[in-house]
Structure formats: C-alpha cells, structure tokens
Design goal:
The structure holds two protein chains of two kinds.
Chain A (H helix, E strand, L loop, with lengths): L1 H4 L3 H11 L2 H18 L6 H26 L7 H19 L1 H25 L4 H22 L9 H8 L1 E2 L2 E2 L2 H17 L1 H11 L1 H6 L4 H27 L11 H10 L11 H20 L4 H23 L3
Antiparallel strand pairs in A: 1-2
Helix pairs in contact in A: 2-15, 3-14, 4-9, 4-10, 4-12, 4-13, 4-14, 5-6, 5-7, 5-12, 6-7, 6-12, 8-12, 9-10, 13-14
Chain B lengths: L1 H6 L1 H20 L5 H26 L7 H16 L4 H29 L3 H19 L9 H6 L14 H19 L1 H11 L1 H6 L4 H27 L9 H11 L12 H19 L4 H28 L1
Helix pairs in contact in B: 2-13, 3-8, 3-11, 3-12, 3-13, 4-5, 4-6, 4-11, 5-6, 5-11, 8-9, 9-11, 12-13, 12-14, 13-14
Classes of the chains: A mainly alpha, B mainly alpha.
Chain lengths: ~325, ~325
C-alpha cells in the first residue's frame, strides 16, 4: 500500500507516459536523430528531413489501418496487398481507360477486399488475423492472374500522383497535402466521432459494448472496409513515390506497419492507443532504417537490430505504463 | 463409440475429405500411384512440420509468427555445416540443429514471458531477428546435405508389401508421435492445454504458466528446426529466405480444428489439413490449372472452410 504512495521517478515517468504517451515517443525520436547526427555529421539537413517525412508517410497511412483495427482488438494484414493491387491496377489501366476510371476501379477493388474481410470477421466471426491473411493470399493470386491476362499496353503513372509522391514544395514533400488532412481527420474521428468511440468501446470490452446496444458486426464491416480503402489510397500515393508498377510494391510495408502502430503505443488487444502515437512510431521506424543503412551494417545485421529495437521499445513502453 | 465419433467429428470429417480427394486424384490421373504419393509426401513434409509446431503453440494459447524464419535459420545452419561433412559428423550436426531450434523457440518464449509483450508482437519482432540471422549465416541459397539425410524422406518404405507407403509420411508420423505422444500423456501436455484454455485459472490451480509457455515455444522451435531440415532434405541446399510456411501453417492449424486462442484441438487434425491442402494443390496441377489460379482456388477453399468452421463454432456456443 505504501509503495504506491511514494512515487519513484520511474513511476512518475510511467504516469507521464499514460497521460501524455506522445512525449516519450517524441523524446525517443529526437534521441535517434541525435545519434544519427553524431554517427554521421552533416547528414541532417532540410533535404534529409523532407525525405524522411516523405518515406514515413505511406508507412504511417498503412499503420493507420493497423491502429484503427487494433483499437477493436483486430489486425489487418492485407493492407500491403491491397495497396499493391490498387497501385498496379491504376498503373496498368490508366493507358487503356484513362486516369479517373482507373483510379475508381482500383479503389473499388480495395473496397471489395475490405468488404470480404469485414464479412468474414463481422458475420462469420473469423479471427481477423486469419481472415485478412487469407484474403491477402487470394487477392495476390487474382493480381498474378490479372497480370498475365492484361493486354500489354504499357504502364502509365498519372502525373498528379508523381507530383504528390515525389514532388517537394519549399523543402517539404507534397504528400503532406494528402497526409495532413488525413491525419487530422483520423485523430479527430478516433476521439470525437461516434464511430471512433465505438472502436474503443468494442476493443475495451466487446460483450459490454454489445449489451449497451452496439451492433458490433456493423462496426466491424465498416471498419475493415475503411481500412482497405485507406490502404488503397496509400497504394496510389506509393505508386507516385516509387514510380514503378511492381507486383510486390507495398508488401514489404505490411509488418513494419504493425510495428509502427505497436511502437506508437496502440495495444494489440484493443481499447488503448491512437493515431498520434502511430505517426511518431512510423517516423521512428523510418529514422531507424535510414540510420541502420548509413551505418553500413550487412542486411542480416540490420534486420536483427530492427527486430530487437522494436521489441525493446515495446517492452519498455509496456513496463512503464503498467499500473499494476 | 458414438461419443468418440462426436468428439472427433472434425478430424474424422477431414480424414474422409482427404480420402475423397485422393480418390478424385486417382480419377483425374489413373496412373497416380506410389510415386505420386511420394512426391505429395515430400512436398507436404516441411508444411506439415511447421503446422505441428504452430499447432502446439496455438493450443497453448499463443501464436508464433517467426516460424518460417526459424525454419530458414535451421535450414542454412544444417546446410552450411553439413557441406563436406562425413556421415558421423552430419548426425552430430543434425542433433545440434535440433538443439538450436529448441533454443530459438525457448528464446521466443522467454522474451514473451519476461517482457510481458503480447506474443504476436514478440514473434513479429523475432521474425526480423531470425531472418537476419539466417542471412548472416548464408547470404544466398547454398551449402549441402548428407546423402543419408536426403534419403530419409525420399522413396517408399523398404518393406515388402508396404513399398507404396511414402517414407515422408512415415518420417512425419514417427517424429511427431515420438515427440508429442509422451508430452501429451505427461503433466506438460495437460499444462499446455490448461494455459491455453484459461491462463488465470491454470495459474490459480498451480500450473507454472511462464515455464509451460516457454516449453510450448521451445517445442515449436524444435518442429521448426525439423521443418527447416526437411527443406534441406528436399532440395539438398539451405534456403536463407523464409518460405510461405507461416500463412500455410496458421491456415492448416485452424482448418485442423485447433481453436485460435487455445485449449482445444489436437495434432492429427492439422496434419490431415496440411495433406488436404497439398492434395488440392497437386490435383489442380494435374488438371493443368494455371498455378496462379490454383493459388486463388486454394486460398478460397481455406477461407471458406475457416468461415464455415467459425460459424459452426459460434452456433455451438449459443446452443
């Protein structure tokens, strides 16, 4: 009993992290940037900052899908596939039928995948992990078949996507034009809108939410459709950034997007976290990757460090915010 | 008898489905026989071993996303060490690789228990770590395998009358039974099911939850090492890039009637499910379906069965 009455510095730090989870994360980010600056003096510049933000944005948007689904205790592992499909469809259909219809079809495909996910999870009550992995597998198969039968008319990447993906205005990447309103909307929606609160309610206690009259299946259906739609839009942005239509475009972002959400303090069991932390998590991962690349560690060593750092940050976060 | 059938209805259904599929294969290709069965068994072996490992962890209430990466580590370690080794040395090497698998799994389990981070996150982080380890050991596919190891899972049984039975199936059955049956019958087996069913209740009944969890992950690592060795057995080289074993093993575990979340199911169901999935893949190849279309069909079957099973499970809970 007396233990709790005398707050140790560690306890106080933990309390701070519960109240202001963003502060220690931003501290970690600054620390990483400082280490980077010491290791490699002269690397820090406006150019570097703009590039880092540019690379972090698609990751942060995919991590938004993970944040929203993880708030209800779910996960969406099909985001990388959905983003890839949306990008590939846009790039290959645009020369044939024009840009706007191509984008419409690409986003429609994303919504269809999301609806299938939502149907399986909401109506059949399949575990989200299994369901989204399964649809990702089927969707990848469909993409490969499409790629074989599509008439080879070449690839066209819409100019405004290239402007959005790679362009810079005054040192800042143009993708912020898309990302800032998007992030503001998500951060507003998660706390202030009815839908956002339902996500927290379901994640905290699904049975209680159901008993209070929440139609859980409708929320799940809407959530996974929304998640796929976000992933589809991210795919378009990523297409403009990478400027090639490949069959595995955004697949390597799948697991890092989960890592970004987890580092950002969103609980994988639901009910806790938010998109603000996730954005910082995505920035941390991006800075970390560029740091490991600059240190010229072999690929294997880089992956080991990447995994260990994710684990250490998450463990520390959980240790410090654990009230019991 | 009736109760036994009811209790094992899912497994029996899978067995009937497998038998029907094999019959269909025989109809599609009348020449299907011992050699076809043998290639099926060889293709299914790494998948089956990964599934067994995954099933044990899922029964204990966890999940291991790093299983394919651990298989890669085992595969490259075995292949690098075995290159140019004598038969006697290679036996020692195989034992060492199995110990390595046990150790990797135990590290996963230990990190989960000590850090209190959810197992999905820990094994996700360890997926990167084991991938990195595999790449550091061997940068590109290479190495070698001892001839006796390669012959373990290839061809039929050298027994008169049983030569149609592929060695791969026998190897799988013997290894799984030798490791799992004694554990299932012991205290540890009961504890694995107990912590998967309800960790808090198990803790209050005096089950050492942490130790049991570590044991479950260690067993998973052991089977991952066996799976990795079986990859090397099949190809004769080590593969540093993890194969598609993660998704396939999770799907087979769920198809096999093990409940995600733990506490229910056995190992026979998942193994049957792996064989079913591999047979479907083989049948589609025999029907000369485009492999990509085959992947779509395979995935749709998996998702449909999982959805069907989930609906059944929800119904069962309500009534």
């Amino acid at each position: 009993m007396t233990m709790t009455d005398t707050p140790t510095p560690l306890n106080r730090l933990g309390r701070l992290m519960i109240d202001q989870p963003l502060l220690p994360l931003i501290g970690l980010l600054i620390l990483l940037v400082a280490v980077l600056a010491i290791l490699n003096p002269g690397v820090l510049s406006m150019f570097w900052a703009g590039n880092t933000i540019k690379i972090a944005i698609p990751l942060a948007m995919l991590a938004a899908c993970q944040t929203l689904t993880m708030l209800t205790g779910g996960i969406d592992l099909s985001v990388g596939t959905v983003a890839t499909i949306a990008a590939y469809l846009t790039a290959t259909l645009a020369p044939m039928i024009g840009v706007p219809p191509a984008i419409a079809i690409a986003l429609a495909a994303a919504v269809v995948i999301g609806l299938v996910n939502g149907f399986g999870i909401a109506v059949c009550r399949v575990h989200p992990l299994i369901m989204t992995l399964g649809t990702a597998l089927i969707a990848t198969g469909c993409l490969l078949v499409y790629q074989r039968y599509v008439i080879a008319t070449g690839v066209l990447i819409p100019d405004f996507l290239i402007w959005l993906g790679t362009g810079k205005t005054g040192g800042l990447p143009n993708s912020l034009v898309l990302f800032v309103p998007f992030a503001a909307l998500i951060i507003w929606a998660q706390r202030r809108s009815g839908f956002g609160r339902l996500l927290y309610a379901i994640g905290a206690n699904e049975a209680a939410a159901r008993l209070s009259g929440v139609r859980v299946w409708q929320v799940h259906l809407a959530l996974y459709t929304l998640s796929s739609l976000i992933a589809g839009v991210t795919g378009l942005l990523y297409l403009g950034q990478i400027k090639t239509a490949s069959l595995s475009l955004a697949l390597p972002l799948d697991l890092p997007s989960v890592a970004a959400a987890v580092i950002g303090g969103t609980s994988i069991f639901g009910g806790r976290g938010g998109f603000g932390g996730t954005i910082v998590g995505a920035l941390i991962l991006t800075v970390l990757t560029s740091m490991l690349t600059l240190m010229q560690i072999p690929e294997g060593g880089r992956r080991i460090l990447f995994g260990l750092i994710i684990l250490a940050v998450t463990a520390l976060f959980i240790r410090l915010t654990d009230r019991s | 008898m009736k109760r036994w059938i009811e209790a094992n209805s899912w497994t029996l259904g899978l067995a009937v489905l497998l038998a029907l599929l094999l019959l269909a294969t025989k109809l599609i290709q009348p020449g299907f026989g011992a050699s076809g069965l043998d290639s099926l068994a060889r293709a299914a072996l790494p998948f089956a071993l990964a599934t067994v490992g995954m099933a044990i962890v899922v029964i204990a209430g966890g999940i291991d996303l790093s299983i394919a990466a651990m298989m890669a580590v085992a595969s490259v370690t075995g292949a690098v060490l075995m290159q140019g080794a004598t038969d006697l040395q290679s036996v020692v090497i195989v034992l060492c690789v199995l110990l390595l698998g046990l150790a990797m799994g135990a590290i996963n389990g230990l990190l989960i228990v000590v850090s209190k981070v959810p197992d999905i996150v820990v094994t996700l982080a360890m997926l990167f770590v084991w991938q990195g380890v595999a790449l550091l050991i061997l940068n590109a596919p290479g190495g070698g395998a001892a001839p006796w190891l390669r012959s373990i899972a290839a061809g039929g049984l050298p027994l008169p009358g049983l030569d149609w039975l592929p060695r791969g199936i026998v190897f799988l059955a013997v290894v799984t039974a030798a490791i799992w049956l004694p554990i299932r019958r012991s205290k540890l087996g009961l504890r694995l099911y107990a912590i998967g069913s309800d960790a808090l209740a198990a803790f209050r009944s005096g089950v050492p939850v942490g130790q049991t969890r570590i044991a479950a992950y260690a067993l998973c690592g052991l089977f991952a090492a066996l799976g990795g060795l079986s990859v090397t057995m099949g190809t004769g080289i080590g593969e540093p890039i993890p194969g598609p074993y993660l998704l396939a093993s999770v799907a087979a575990v769920v198809l096999g009637g093990v409940v995600l979340g733990g506490g229910r199911g056995g190992l026979l169901g998942p193994i049957l499910a792996v064989l079913i999935l591999r047979t479907v893949r083989m049948d589609l190849t025999l029907l000369s379906v485009d492999p990509n279309v085959a992947a779509i069909i395979e995935g749709s079957i998996m998702v449909a069965v999982v959805m069907f099973g989930a609906v059944l499970a929800t119904r069962g809970r309500r009534t």
